[in-house]
Design brief:
By secondary structure, the protein is an all-alpha fold. The protein has one domain (about 1-45). It has two helices and no strands. The longest helix is centred in the N-terminal third of the chain and has 21 residues, at about 1-20. The termini are far apart. About 0% of the residues are buried. The model has no long low-confidence stretch (mean pLDDT about 80).
Length: about 45
């Protein structure tokens, strides 16, 4: 159980590192912003 938690934590860290490395590229920022906006719009519509 403890091992699983630390594995999940390292997955989150790896994902955060990947995001921070990719974030330098403007196209990734634009794509992320577009996806985020789509999610917010969907939530607002459902809500």
């Amino acid at each position: 159980m403890e091992m699983g938690q630390s594995g999940q934590y390292s997955d989150v860290m790896a994902f955060g590192l990947w995001i921070s490395l990719r974030w330098r590229h403007a196209s990734v920022r634009e794509e992320f912003t577009t996806v985020l906006a789509s999610c917010i719009n969907a939530v607002v519509r459902l809500g």
